[in-house]
Write a structure and sequence with these properties.
Blueprint (H helix, E strand, L loop, with lengths): L4 H11 L4 E2 L22 E2 L4 H14 L3 E4 L16 E4 L15 E5 L4 H10 L2 E2 L12 H7 L6 H4 L2 H4 E7 L5 E4 L12 H5 L8 E8 L1 E2 L3 E9 L2 H14 L3 E8 H10 L12 E9 L4 H9 L5 E5 L2 H12 L1 H8 L3 E6 L5 H13 L6 E7 L4 E7 L7 H12 L18 H4 L2 H14 L12
Parallel strand pairs: 2-4, 3-4
Antiparallel strand pairs: 1-2, 5-9, 6-10, 7-8, 7-9, 11-13, 11-14, 12-13, 12-16, 15-17, 16-17
The protein binds flavin-adenine dinucleotide.
């Protein structure tokens, strides 16, 4: 795909020649994290600040060129890659990170700041940024706002939308909206930050966000518990949540995933015997929560438990869970179906989809893990061609019939847009289209995503 000479000149004027690169020289920007979605691009453009983003968009708009905004490119629904020859607008150089506003308990961060750097910045000021996920060192503030990322702390602090106080964004024609004052009470019309959160780059380009911080808890303990039944693991997580305000994470995975992670990364399970189901719990408090958690664990039907208080051993327990995504990629490019199921239906759902997906053919394998108390299961399926959508046809209607959602936290992207009608009414989708038309009338932003 070629870049028209006029547009190339305008882009170079906007950001400098060294930050306009042909897609052929930036293959990593054209393939998604799973390897399932591969495209090509005439140019990968990396502006340094909001004004440059606006200039790039104005130039693309004038030329009628389509654009895919891209942060860390860790999104899991194929929304961050140029599938039909779009220009990639990379936001990674927007690394503004203001001083923590202690009185407001907030911070303003540029779109390209990684979640890991934001967390560290908050920690240094005695706070924490609540959203945390395994891709923290690559995923960006802009991408997490655009996808309303969830992660492992939703049960205590909520998703990205709950942390978002204000947003700065550029519209497709280059106009900029700045609403970063951070007032906790500001009832002056439409909530544009809320609208942009989860808009997946279809309405405008997020250039900065004003984010809430939470208190930093000095003491942490993690525990990996083993169970014979999914229902027991979920009941244990609920019981611990009901008995302590310290609970910060409750992650679920299964024996096949544990074995795969151990094999792929040469790790050893902390347990001599394997179990069907594992629950990873983390508690955090101002004083050491280890004893409190210990007595709660004793009341669960866990057959085994490994408890870690010091930093390195806690991370070692977390690695069994956090390496799932990377381990699955070693089997093959997966179909990722991130769904929510009402908690009481999750055990039966897990059993049923294992059986049904197993029938799709030899070599088709399903890997399940997720955020237990959010009812959020990541259904990963390997052994299917990237465009073989039988598994989506099978799982999404089942999820909806059980009262769940076809996207818990990853968004719709390109991977799920065919099924949006299962989750939203015709009228809702018409409202979506009207909003899209109002903000991006020429439709240049992320044309393959959502609608
Ligand atoms: C190992 C691993 C673990 C993960 N765990 C979780 C998890 O627990 N919870 C969870 O919710 N997600 C998880 N994800 C998915 C992903 O990390 C998050 O969705 C993340 O927030 C995406 O950020 P990003 O910067 O990589 O965005 P990208 O992948 O670059 O983009 C994602 C979407 O946002 C759009 N976009 C990006 N930046 C902007 C911007 N500045 N303005 C407008 N639109 C933009 C893109 O066009 C695309 O549609 C995980 C991913 C990996 C690889």
């Amino acid at each position: 795909v070629d870049l028209p000479a006029d547009l190339e000149r305008a882009l170079v004027d906007a950001v400098g020649a060294e930050h306009v690169r042909p897609g052929t020289e930036e293959p990593g920007a054209c393939v998604d994290w799973t390897g399932r979605f591969v495209g090509e691009s005439p140019a990968v453009v990396r502006p340094a600040d909001t004004e440059q983003v606006a200039a790039v968009l104005a130039a693309c708009s004038a030329a009628g060129a389509t654009v895919v905004p891209q942060g860390g490119n860790t999104g899991l629904v194929g929304g961050s890659v140029p599938l039909k020859g779009e220009i990639v607008l990379s936001l990674v150089r927007l690394r503004r990170l203001d001083d923590v506003d202690r009185s407001a308990r907030q911070v303003t961060a540029g779109a390209g700041v990684t979640l890991g750097d934001l967390q560290q910045h908050a920690r240094a000021a005695g706070f924490a940024y609540a959203v945390d996920l395994a891709a923290r060192d690559t995923a960006t503030v802009g991408g997490s706002v655009a996808t309303n990322a969830g992660g492992v702390h939703v049960l205590r602090y909520g998703d990205t939308r709950r942390q978002l106080v204000g947003v700065e964004f550029a519209l497709s024609d280059g106009r900029v909206v700045r609403h970063l004052s951070g007032l906790e009470k500001d009832n002056t019309g439409y909530d544009l930050a809320g609208l942009f959160c989860g808009s997946e780059g279809t309405l405008g380009v997020v250039t900065a966000a004003r984010l809430r911080l939470v208190p930093r808890r000095a003491e942490r303990v993690a525990a990996l518990l083993a169970f014979a039944e999914t229902a027991d693991a979920l009941a244990a997580a609920q019981a611990i949540r009901d008995r302590t305000p310290d609970l910060e994470a409750a992650e679920l995975f299964f024996d096949d995933g544990m074995r795969l992670v151990c094999e792929a990364f040469s790790l050893t399970s902390p347990f001599a015997d394997s179990s069907a189901v594992y629950l990873l719990i983390e508690c955090a408090a101002d004083d050491d929560p280890t004893t409190r958690l210990g007595s709660l664990i004793e009341e669960t039907p866990a057959s085994d438990a490994a408890v870690a208080h010091d930093h390195d051993r806690r991370l070692a327990l977390w690695s069994y869970r956090e390496l799932h995504t990377s381990a699955i990629n070693t089997v093959g490019a997966p179909h990722k179906l991130d769904v929510t199921i009402p908690l009481d239906r999750m055990p039966a759902f897990a059993t049923e989809i294992r059986a049904r997906i197993g029938e799709l053919g030899p070599g088709v394998r399903v890997w399940l893990f997720g955020h237990a108390l959010d009812g959020n299961l990541h259904v990963n399926v390997t052994g299917l061609a990237p465009d073989d959508e039988r598994v989506e046809e099978l799982v999404f209607p089942l999820v909806v019939s059980l009262g769940g959602s076809i996207s818990a936290e990853h968004g719709i992207g390109t991977a799920k847009k065919r099924w949006l009608h299962l989750a939203r009414t015709q009228t809702e989708i018409e409202v979506f289209r009207a909003i899209k038309l109002a903000l991006d009338p020429a439709g240049i932003l992320n044309p393959n995503v959502l609608l």
